[in-house]
Amino acid sequence: MKHLGVAFFVLLLIQNYGIFLHVEADNGFVKTKGVQLILNGSPYYANGFNAYWMMYVASDSSQRDKVSSAFQDATKHGLRIARTWAFSDGGYRPLQDSPGSYNEQMFQGLDFVISEAKKYDIKVVLSLVNNYENFGGKKQYVDWAKGQGQSVTSEDDFFTNSVVKGYYKNHIKTVLTRRNSLTGIAYKDDPTIMAWELMNEPRCPSDKSGKTIQAWITEMASYLKSIDRNHLLEVGLEGFYGASKQPSNPNFQVGTDFITNNQIPGIDFATVHAYPDQWLPGSSDEDQLSFLNSWLNDHIQDAQKILHKPILVAEFGKSLKLSNNTQRTKLFKTVYSTIYSSASGGGAAVGGSFWQLLAAGLDNFRDGYEIILSENPSIASVIAQESQKLGRLRKMYARLRNIEKWKRAREIKSRGNNNGN
Q1: Which positions are annotated as active-site residues?
Q2: Does residue 421 carry a pLDDT above 90?
């Protein structure tokens, strides 16, 4: 009876919200239609996780079991999306040690991550550069250009200097056209990859008007799509608003605008991050949860009513250095319930990915936000329960699509029989 109730509920959604299940080729690429992600013709809802460390760890073949273990644990808990880095610029064990020069061993680590994700039926979001100095970031690109005689004085020259932009475009092309050494599939042709991300949390504080980042996103989105039309693209935004909705921000601006940045052609879905413990330091847990509720609902409504695009809560978390397990569990429940409320009502929220999933034995990557599912049974239970709820919604749409396919096939067969008579 429970499943029949869900089926009836979804049928009401289809009728009332104009959600249609189109029968089309099952090619495995995630697409968008209106405010929904679509996989093989059916709406796709899924929770996920961040694990930036995967390429780095997998570049050492003796440590690859940790990547496999993380994917296995994630799958057991209903997680279906993994976000990780496709960059490591300069410094120790880089992917790109200088502009256009790549470390094959590190690339093979990323090959393994993608091939292993496929085994566990997990879709991957790959970020292409960092806003911060960790793993090189925009500062490393600017330093490379400075070393070649370019007149650059700020990290934010990353967004405007033509040489730096050329370096970055070359990285886009190199990653997208990479042929996986394990599967033989070029990244741009691999449906295991759900989406590309232009930058992890882009910020340009030197131009709070937002014009610099708007122009950069426009240029880079167009360039990336000229190489790869198969995959979705998102910016990597935290969700801060520009002047049009500044009061919604947690007391600062970073030169981005959730609305205008996501309206750029080529940007397929929106993202929002949520770290009330960082953004509202010294505030009470109740105040942080109140902010979180408003922050998420504002972005979900704006994605639905203004952008007309899906939205993924691409990062959220609460540090155990600043809180306890009970407080963190409350935050997770708040995020997940907000997402499910939107998704189950035909809204724009499609899932949430917490920061960060770790495998056992990776103590060097602990940052206070880490979750090792086997060591955190209370939060693991919440993650599993909430992800299974989204999974049931996803599966119900898939069943309804199969019914639609069967009806279509029967109609075609019936017409054929009538013509034969």
Answers
A1: 201, 315
A2: no
**108 upstream amide cis, omega within 30 of 0:** no
Q: Is 252 left (phi over 0), alpha (psi -120 to 50) or beta?
A: beta
Q: What is the pLDDT of residue 416?
A: 61
- Could you tell me where the DSSP H helices lie in 148-272? 162-176, 211-227, 258-262
Contact status, residue 255 vs residue 242, Cβ threshold 8 Å: no
> For 170-189, what is the mean pLDDT?
98
* C-alpha span between 261 and 235 (Å, rounded): 8
Give the C-alpha separation, 37 to 303, whole Å. Answer: 13
* Residue 210 contacts residue 242 (beta carbons within 8 Å): yes
Q: What is the pLDDT of residues 11-57, one digit of tens each?
A: 444 444 444 444 445 689 999 999 999 999 999 999 999 999 999 99
Query: Dihedral sign, CA of 91, 92, 94, 97?
Result: positive
Rounded to an integer, the average pLDDT of 175-201 is 98
Question: What are 274's strand-pairing partners?
Answer: 316
Residues 6+ apart with CB under 8 A from 147: none
Report residue 64's pLDDT band, with 50, 70 and 90 as the boundaries: very high
Q: Choose the CATH number for 2-420 among 3.30.420.40, 3.40.50.2000, 3.20.20.80, 1.20.1260.10.
A: 3.20.20.80
Q: Are 233 and 221 in contact (CB under 8 A)?
A: yes
